[in-house]
Amino acid sequence: MSNQPLIQHSIEIAAPPAAVWAIVSDLRRMGEWSPQCVRMTVLGREVGVGTRTINLNRDGWKRWPTSSRVVVFEPEQTLAFRVPINRTVWTYELEPSASGTVLTESRRAPSGVSRLSNIAVGAALGGTEAFEASLSDGIRRTLERIKAEAEAS
């Protein structure tokens, strides 16, 4: 199976965009939300376009490092970071709604996923179809965790 160019889910959150943005833009806390991310270490103090991160990811007992760079940072609207090793872009988009905020998380592969990443996924993570299904489930779970945090605040 070839890689999906877009994996995306949205959730309605009963909190204003500013509250949701405060959670989403704090990349140091990504490990609290994402079931795949163990830790995201921000290199530098403030997050903005160009900020680099070192990440530790997991799938069960398996662990692997990646890095990323913030490519879009529009407060209370859009945060996106690119993972160079696999050429994917992860995006959080916030849209005001009548009851608060619609938060959308996506994983895009605008120029396809790198061959190296596909080989690693095939050899260690159950293949593309299984891995991307886990990414889709992980996005849903991440959104649910962010919703719970935002609505509890």
TrEMBL record:
InterPro entries found in the cross-reference section: Polyketide_cyclase/dehydratase (IPR019587), START-like_dom_sf (IPR023393)
A Pfam family it matches: Polyketide_cyc2
Protein name listed in UniProt: SRPBCC family protein
